[in-house]
Design a protein that fits this description.
Elements lengths: L5 H14 L4 H11 L2 H15 L4 H5 L3 H14 L9 E5 L13 E8 L4 H11 L4 E5 L2 E6 L5 E4 L3 E10 L7 H20 L1 H14 L9 H15 L3 E14 L2 E6 L5 E2 L10 E2 L17 E9 L7 E10 L5 E11 L1 H5 L8 H11 L4
Antiparallel strand pairs: 1-2, 2-6, 3-6, 4-5, 4-6, 7-8, 7-9, 7-13, 8-10, 11-12, 12-13
Helix pairs in contact: 1-3, 2-3, 2-5, 3-5, 6-7, 8-9
Length: 364
């Protein structure tokens, strides 16, 4: 189990050969002296993956001893990790000169490989007002036993290894930074784990619209259905989903979360004050046949994952036989970059509003 498969050894050797002139070989030579034969294969493969994207100038910025020390420390940090859980540490290296000395604060993360990790961690640092001076993010295959102990590098599951050097932080700020990073990584994990169910849920809602009892016209239902299908077709990055039932609270009718219906960022219990049903219409798209079926707006909460900005909100209302709203199915996320590059007349619902504006302005 401790040996690398042949293809990993070949890849490792190619990495060493191609990077030898850039200074990687001296680092591997130092590693060979620091670790025993039993750990040499993993240490070499780990360092090769860690440094393979660095050019000669970057490698020359520190001595081979310093890079080897960083690789060994990071490998030790990755030594035990249970699947589904991230290793996170934030610390201040000594300011004094030497292989481990640095003027920056170090943030290191070992995690299951998944989308949004780099963007989300960098975004968290920006929101804390912390500058990032260096960011390394190799993805490597690591094999572990059931307890999470590292067995070999170069085989097994893909893991994300991140090393960031930040503005030097006071000791009392380190715990806050770590807690923030852990929270962001948990958000990423929840979103990625529930991505497919959220997409399938939107597709199911779109397919169900035509059969629902509703005061909405057939054309309006069709336009709403096509918009949801368009959004689910890689035009919406799903962050959360939850269902709400209309209940009477005193004189008002409010939307109350359905327990157990949440996905992604909305997995947990809803801690917000129930929203009055009458407030929903003010945010719906006007001049559309599906004005009362879909709610398209921005939330007042900023995204913690992927990219900064307020999250997009797609709400789908359900009605009883009398045309009264009785349920909302709510999707939170961000429209993808491809959504913003599409022509307005190619997007369901948006094309109706575009045509209305054009007609009113005499341009159509």
């Amino acid at each position: 189990r401790g040996r690398l498969p042949l293809e990993a050894v070949i890849h490792m050797n190619k990495s060493v050969d191609s990077a030898a002139d850039a200074g990687l070989k001296p680092i591997l030579d130092v590693l060979a002296k620091r670790v025993g034969k039993s750990g040499q294969a993993s240490a070499t493969a780990f360092a090769s993956a860690l440094f393979r994207r660095m050019d000669a100038e970057e490698l020359a910025s520190r001595g081979a001893e310093a890079w080897a020390e960083l690789a060994l420390a990071l490998l030790d940090f990755a030594g035990t990790r249970k699947r589904g859980k991230a290793n996170v540490q934030v610390f201040n290296p000594p300011l004094k000169a030497g292989p481990v000395g640095s003027a920056h604060t170090t943030l290191q993360i070992v995690n299951d490989d998944m989308p949004f990790l780099v963007d989300s961690v960098a975004m968290a640092m920006a929101e804390l007002g912390i500058g990032v001076h260096a960011l390394g993010h190799p993805v490597m295959r690591i094999s572990r036993d059931r307890a999470g102990k590292l067995l070999a590098v170069g085989e097994g599951d893909r893991e994300s290894v991140m090393h960031l050097e930040l503005d030097r932080q006071p000791k009392e700020a380190l715990a806050t930074i770590k807690a923030r990073v852990i929270r962001v990584l948990e958000d990423v994990r929840a979103i990625v784990a529930d991505w497919a169910p959220m997409q399938a849920q939107m597709q199911a809602v779109a397919a169900d619209l035509a059969a629902r009892k509703s005061p909405i016209s057939k054309d309006g239902k069709r336009e709403a259905r096509e918009f949801l299908e368009w959004a689910a077709d890689d035009h919406f990055t799903f962050f959360g989903y939850r269902e709400y039932q209309v209940e009477r609270k005193g004189k008002d009718e409010v939307l109350c979360a359905v327990p157990g219906s949440g996905l992604g960022l909305l997995r947990g219990d809803d801690e917000h004050k129930p929203r009055p049903v009458k407030s929903l219409a003010a945010h719906s798209m006007r001049h559309s046949g599906s004005v009362d079926a879909l709610i398209l707006t921005k939330t007042n909460a900023r995204a913690s994952v992927h990219r900064p900005g307020y999250m997009d909100y797609i709400g789908v209302l359900d009605f009883d036989a009398n045309g009264k709203a009785i349920r909302e199915q709510r999707f939170l996320g961000l429209y993808t970059s491809s959504a913003y590059t599409r022509r307005p007349w190619d997007i369901p619902l948006v094309r109706e509003r575009h045509e209305y504006v054009m007609q009113k302005s005499g341009l159509s």
